[in-house]
Write a structure and sequence with these properties.
single chain, about 45% helix, 4-stranded antiparallel beta sheet, 8 helices, binds calcium ion, alpha/beta
């Protein structure tokens, strides 16, 4: 679950943002002043920060600058004044997006989603972790056995999960159906290589935008499958 920090002194706005983000399965933390906000942003691991410009304590300009010195997580800046937004853009502080208040909460959620998936694609290729497999919009948490597609959790059966994880961990390698069957199903399993085909189909329905044109698991005709990167 992605962690989002909201640094916003207007509690009603912060609460509204939190409610909408939580409905969309994000874990949300709020700081109401700039000093605590900066401390949290630098001290904890968040996946995205929603940063108000005018804050008591340290202001949003300074917070943005300080975060950028240490982290490249997405920063979405918000302000009540359009002029301020223009000014911030001009300063090139390194925020990823800007929104003028008031904005619709669903627009906020859409932008958060877009920035998180872009960021995940960015780090996906060089993240080395035993527990996470991240390839483009897919994030497989092996420890929790959960799968997120563009930030949205999808449910997989045990074998679907094992098969997807195995393919994703061996990208660009072409496996025959026999190899996949041997790898994922134990010897006592009832079934045959047709089981593999059925499972690939089910996985594609969950991860592919268009199952007719798979972007992740590619069929190599006459051979088997491979996970494209
Ligand atoms: Ca404010």
């Amino acid at each position: 679950m992605s962690k989002i920090l909201i640094i916003e002194d207007e509690t009603a706005i912060a609460d509204l943002e939190r409610d909408y983000l939580e409905i969309n399965d994000y874990e949300v933390f709020i700081e109401n002043d700039g000093t605590k906000g900066l401390e949290a942003a630098l001290g904890d691991d968040y996946d995205l920060i929603i940063l108000d410009l005018m804050l008591p304590g340290v202001d949003g300009y300074e917070i943005c600058k300080r975060i950028r010195e240490e982290k490249n997580i997405p920063i979405l800046m918000v302000s009540a004044k359009k002029d301020d937004i223009d000014k911030v853009r001009g300063l090139g502080l390194g925020a990823d997006d800007y929104m003028t208040k008031p904005f619709s909460p669903s627009e906020l959620v859409a932008r958060v989603k877009a920035h998180l998936s872009r960021y995940e694609r960015l780090i996906g290729s060089n993240q080395k972790s035993n527990d996470l497999v991240e390839i483009r919009g897919i994030r497989i948490d092996k420890t929790a056995r959960r799968v997120y597609i563009d930030g949205e959790e999808k449910t997989f059966t045990t074998k679907e999960f094992d098969l997807l994880t195995f393919l994703a961990e061996n990208p660009n390698h072409v496996f025959t159906k026999e190899e996949l069957f041997r790898e994922i199903w134990d010897m006592d399993s009832i079934g045959d290589i047709a089981t593999v085909t059925v499972h690939i189909k089910k996985i594609r329905e969950k991860i592919e935008f268009d199952t007719a044109k798979p972007q992740y698991i590619e069929t190599i005709w006459g051979v088997g499958y491979r996970f494209k990167v």
